[in-house]
Structures
1.
Amino acid sequence: GLVNTKEMFAKAVKGGYAIPAFNFNTMEQMQAIVQAAVETKSPVIMQVSKGARNYANGTILRYMAQGAVEYAKELGCANPQIVLHLDHGDSFELCKDCIDNGFSSVMIDGSALPYEDNIALTKKVVEYAHAHDVTVEAELGVLAGVEDEVASEVSHYTKPEEVIDFATRTGCDSLAISIGTSHGAYKFKPEQCTRNAQGKLVPPPLAFDVLHAIEQKLPGFPIVLHGSSSVPQDEVDTINAHGGKLPDAVGIPEEQLREASRSAVCKINIDSDSRLAMTAAIRKYFDEHPEHFDPRQYLKPARENMKKMYMHKIVDVLGSNDKL
Ligand code: G3H
Ligand code: 13P
Ligand code: NA
Ligand code: ZN
């Protein structure tokens, strides 16, 4: 069945790699994630946001994730390591509902709350979760952009001096930190970036000094990076070449995610890159086959393109391949 993150994270921290956490809302995403994980022999976290539950229905997504384990076995993987994780849980009740309904891991995101309120809420979720063998991700520090319907113009890096107190008092199993990533396909404003020779935006580097300070405070403690899509320029170009309009979309350079993966960062969240891969393939297909209208015709290349992206992340960026 589904597993929690405990052993997986311990191994990843020790081994200097990161587990991919891919969001899913559709069957094609689920299939592509499982195919990619099986072919690369990677553990994988399949995560469901509140928005995903609203879109697809929580029960359906849960059975899809449970089905994913069976599907992985059918594809020849004897020992699939698949986590079903709640992404950005915003209340005890939502976390409890997921814990009561088969999720093996939850995130309680109290990062927008005052420090003591974040601790109290996280601790309450941890107590309930641990009684049910479910692991808990917490968050300290605020990502720039829209997170949990709370808009923040600037990011507030995680304060290294707070992490020991926070981890000890909450008992959380992993900690999402803010070191300059943000959600979506527009992670930096053009004025925050420089331009390379080709005129492409080059974002400012992540705050690795903050990450290293956190690692020194909590040696070996599992760290999570949200907002870690790299917004591949070829996908953006394909989208824009086929009627899309994504000007100046920019993400986190993969080299920096590779570096983070070697540290105590053991979970890297990727959602936007899957959206881009799907949209690019579908836009191209529609442009090239205006006479087609069977969803299977255009969802097939979309699924293949997502699978290719997932495999690339696993093998070339996070290094979680050959770990089963
Ligand atoms: O946290 C952001 C994730 O990409 C989930 O996005 O809330 O639109 O499903 P969503
Ligand atoms: P991206 O928008 O960079 O894919 O981040 C996803 C995420 O953090 C989900 O929680
Ligand atoms: Na790591
Ligand atoms: Zn996130």
Note: The mean pLDDT is 96.
2.
Amino acid sequence: EQNARSMITTTQDRAAIDKAVYWLSQGEAIGMPTETVYGLAANALDASAVAKIFAAKNRPQDNPLIVHVSSLSMLESILPNGKIPDVYLPIIKRCWPGPLTIILPTSAKIPATVTCDQPTVAVRFPAHPVARALIEACGFPLAAPSANSSGKPSPTLASHVFHDLNNKIPLILDGGACTVGVESTVLDGLRNPPAILRPGGATYETLQQLKGMEQLQVYRKHFVDQALELAPTTPGMKYRHYSPEAMVILVEEEEVAMAYGNSSNYNSNNHKDTQQPSFDTVWRNELTQLLDNGIGIQKVGILTIVPDGGSMEWRETTTKDGIEYVSLQMGRQGHPDEVARGMFKGLREMDTIAVDVIFVQGVSESNEGMAVMNRLRKAATKTIII
Ligand code: TXA
Ligand code: MG
């Protein structure tokens, strides 16, 4: 029944999918694996089912959802004239199924609760075999935001969904660890020039090479005010996101911050004439300052990148002067796909350990690094430029 404890079920067998189809057909919301992050799925054509998504994750009512399909004909069935705009054809060919969401004109079939009354609908064809099998078996598209409580880091394991939504949904399908680890890229190809509204698993580098995408823009932070005026529900621009309980201090390199175009808003230390300090030096200095200011800190989390040639040690713990230091590694330098996979997991793990502060090492914005930095900047309480 509706108040049952959420069940985690593995997807080895058909029975799990059948159970999920049962709940979804009843108008319930359930946890679903995708290759990006876990989704909280409900029948996208049923307004009351969609309302349960907003309730379960306590999502602001004006943040629209992504509709997930398992075929192009399912997509066509929800479009105004059954026609996919030409601009998307090369993109679909290259990126679907996969971590890319596209903005399309909506139709009367899609409830206003999905689109939040916008004239457009966001659609994705996920690659995860369980998601595909599930949507296919349902025969209707699934609206699904990330399956975290609103504001928390996105879930990349079924246990993360259980942690946030246990008792709020009847079922979580366990499809293993998400292989991409960050949400899909949201691409608006209807505007001219086309724009990435949210960087994600499909990279700028990949998209920009495609026909019609030569002028592809990326929405940056300095566009926020203008963007909010144009579209109050543009992805992730209005609400604080991805934040663990602990204070998050992001350390990013000046070149990365400059390229991002927003460095003037930060308290940049000027190291032009001296050597750039290491991440290690910077967080230790910052910690000393926090302690000097009387901030009570017993546990310190450090989320790092494995340096070139180093090896992955998922976790290292040391204690010194009564403070416990836990260091987790997100991925190897030069492997932004690995960092993307490890980032949300690392942020969540820090909450499990209950650290008081998390120092995070930034990465370059190339490839999946753009999505990683977008999420880390949103999670950060403070950013230090080195
Ligand atoms: O990878 C993903 O995209 C995951 C998995 C579950 O598919 N889903 C996901 O959903 O990240 P969510 O709700 O956490 O993020 C959806 C983003 C939001 O930032 C929302 O503002 C944007 O997509 N969005 C949805 N509909 C839109 C629309 N019509 N126009 C512009 N942005 C839209
Ligand atoms: Mg989300």
Note: The mean pLDDT is 89.
3.
Amino acid sequence: STQLMAGKKGLIMGVANDRSIAWGIAKACAAQGAQLAFTYQGDALERRVRPLAESVGSPLVLSCDVTDSDSMDACFAAIAKEWDGLDFVVHAIAFSDKEELKGPYYNTTLPNFLNCMHVSVYSFTDVARRAQPLMKEGGSLVTLSYYGAEQVMPHYNVMGVAKAALEASVRYLAADLGPNGIRVNAISAGPIKTLAASGIGDFRLILRWNELNAPMGRNVTIEDVGNSGLYLLSDLGSGVTGEVLHVDSGYHTVGMLNPASAGE
Ligand code: NAD
């Protein structure tokens, strides 16, 4: 077969519904012949994730709360039992109390700071450590970041600090796992209207701002992110690790919009 992902098995963590970025990546991988397993957090999301998994021929649908080590143990034990190996993992998971995604960052509370770091940062390292023994022939890990890691974005607050730590984790993990042939990268996606994004204040305005200021003059879709995810997860990305790939219509490259192309 000429399919890019033929013979590859991947774990997709972070699908909440058909608008999830993880679903965009899962669709792109499934279309290229990947065999997928999905995790979901909580019974409410199981009802959404199961039919999506079935639609791409994936019987392996596992409960997993990344802050619960028993649940992580059970999830990776199930993968090890069902599959003879693992080739890739998508980590598209983050959380903050939305009350803390408004007002000044200095009001961030310690409990939410720690929980945000646990769910949004530590969990990726935990997943990498657990995936490594299953990736006997090398592999590829991808997590999702946002420009708020690099520059201040309105309301992003503790999540920006968490994404900066996540991007640093990508580099440390890439160094650790490179000798095992395991690549570790992040996609820094432009804003997309998802369940998680609904917790961010002024999100409609942020979408509009990006559309008006990005070189491509449009927002990205989960299909755009899916295609770039496919590149990093497949052998097309074979020389790429420790990278943060911006999939944002070029927004991060612009210092000031050319007035000639503004204000239509
Ligand atoms: P989403 O709501 O569809 O996905 C977020 C997922 O995180 C959900 O599936 C949720 O169940 C999961 N999650 C939260 N806490 C968890 C826990 N304790 N255990 C297991 N799973 C947990 O939203 P999305 O926008 O697709 O988010 C995916 C990733 O993309 C996140 O890391 C997010 O920060 C990142 N991202 C989003 C945007 C955007 O604009 N939507 C932009 C850049 C990066």
Note: The two ends are 48 Å apart (CA to CA).
4.
Amino acid sequence: MELDKMDENDWKYHGEGNKSLVVSHLQHCKVLRLLKFPSEDSAHTRQTAEQAFRHIPNIVDYSKYVMKPLLGEKYVHSGEVVKLPLDFVRQLSLKVQQERPELRCDKVMDTFSGCGLCLPNLTQLPLHHLRDHSPPICVEIKPKCGFLPFSRHITKECKCKVCRFCMHQHYKLANGKWKRLSRYCPLDLFSGSKQRMYVALKNLLEEPQNNLKIFKGGELIFSCKDDAKQQPELNDLIQHLRPYFPHSNSLYNGHQPGKAVLNEFIQVICSALLSGGDSNRSGEPRKVHLSESRPHCEASPFPRDLLRNGNHGLPKDSVLAKILQVQMLDNLDIEGIYPLYKRVEQYLEEFPRERNRLQIDGPYNETFMDTVKNCPSEDDGSVEYAVGKVHQYRVAMTAKDCSVMITFAPCEEDEEHQLNLEKPRFTYSVSILDLDPKPYEGIPHQNKLDTKIVNYYLRSTQAPP
Ligand code: ATP
Ligand code: MG
Ligand code: ZN
Ligand code: MG
């Protein structure tokens, strides 16, 4: 990419989250990720520019030195910091404005810092487009927290029975964030049981909210509708998928062929999620049982009497096992972390200069990673222990908020990296994205939010009729 010849016409709107906006290159398999700010902040341009200036390199370091060693080389692409001409960024911001969904327009794209992140376009398969293939399908899942907390600091029993995602659904519905409850439960997806994973993915398809997006040839073809009342079109999706599963069109003698297509599609996603990235090895991969606590969520719609069936536990090198392992660095729960956060705060009040040494706001380098890895398991009352646990908590929060990208396309004979399915055969790749550091300052908010979600859940589900 020649940075002095950047032309906004080579790029188009690709998507956005709460923190960043992404544009994709029209020819190359690349995207640019740009930060966003609350629109009222944009008045303080110098300050916001400086923020982005520091934040983008921080994001890359955090991915490179912290998340990548924890999640595995093969799944994480850290990308590189690029310095963009301000004129290009301003033109780009104007160009993409009309494509942006209304519910995201409370924030504006950063056009001040000229700093961006260049990443491979994970909705595409590298080199794939060079051949005359069908365009790749990409499934993006934001799985959220896949375990029930087990910390002795927990004061509300329901937190150990109903998962955070399922409780949060009720709160979001009450606050108008969504119009319908999602029946997706992360504990089913992370179970490693094909049956439960199938149900979880089916429920994501029925109510994707911001946990599921599907792309074809790099274009978004399925996601939650901007108008929260409208249901996404499963039938349209089936039409898109049909050519990828020609075999299933003849199944069931034409009865509900759409169902057969969706069924096979879900099987492909499941296999990719359970694969170790290199699927050519034979034999049963070793299973890990990470969850020490109850592995089932009482709010999940999965039938309880079927829980004993099937194969549980995730293959050790699978993307979900990796993510779950990092999520479980949060072993004290916010209720155990908040007092430690206050210990750190008190210490910093007395010794403000220590903030740098303790790497509260980074830099996110090997030393930071050492603190995360070598934090003692028992509280010795020190500020070092408190900082170590707070660092671990923040790392876990990142893993609870990341997304998995599964990109696949039909492949020719003897191509590598095939899913181990009878028919059809796919080339695929699995990656993890959105691995930004979560701010230290966010901990008091997390503490309040936790109380609100739990209290609201208890009131709404246990209130007398
Ligand atoms: P969130 O609100 O989930 O924290 P975010 O603001 O941090 O999101 P991302 O999730 O990184 O932003 O990016 C927003 C969207 O852009 C993603 O959901 C994904 O669809 C798309 N995207 C991001 N990075 C890539 C990539 N490398 N390749 C393809 N698409 C990408
Ligand atoms: Mg995201
Ligand atoms: Zn649940
Ligand atoms: Mg994010």
Note: The longest strand covers residues 30-38.
